[in-house]
Amino acid sequence: xxxxxxxxxxxxxxxxxxxxxxxxxxxxxxxxxxxxxxxxxxxxxxxxxxxxxxxxxxxxxxxxxxxxxxxxxxxxxxxxxxxxxxxxxxxxxxxxxxxxxxxxxxxxxxxxxxxxxxxxxxxxxxxxxxxxxxxxxxxxxxxxxxxxxxxxxxxxxxxxxxxxxxxxxxxxxxxxxxxxxxxxxxxxxxxxxxxxxxxx
Length: 200
Hints:
Elements: E1 3-7, H1 13-21, H2 32-41, E2 44-50, E3 53-62, H3 70-76, E4 83-90, H4 99-111, E5 117-123, H5 129-137, E6 141-147, E7 153-160, H6 163-171
Parallel strand pairs: 4-5
Antiparallel strand pairs: 1-2, 2-3, 3-4, 5-7, 6-7
């Protein structure tokens, strides 16, 4: 069956919370209040659906967001403009089936129209090598490490989005409307971004 990536719906938050908290050492646990704050403020909060059930989700924020994450603050102290992936979670029974790649393809399609870089982190814990390998195979490279306030160490990863410069130079802040183009969620406070960005 095909994978459908779409915006999360409010009545699905309990299912998303359970999926997050069953994900293992690569993902920090959430409570319902924090997940609700993501629903209310995240620029990007989408789920991957397969066979009629949620198989994964991804939450992301633009670099101007009021987001209270240690790792987001680390990136903001080092880069003028980026799109930050706070978390991606794939159900254990769906891993290796393309769900993670579908979510990353979708978030990249969103981000490359608006930001020069995509940023995320992987916790450096036992059992997270698969997450580092996945991100490396998708073009992310380590730009540093951060020790979070809870003592966890994270590998800080970034990926240049080479389409951004052309989109910015061609369309500026007035992107055309297209049915295939992911748009910011209505409740997010997304703002236009116009810094320079280059790809080697």
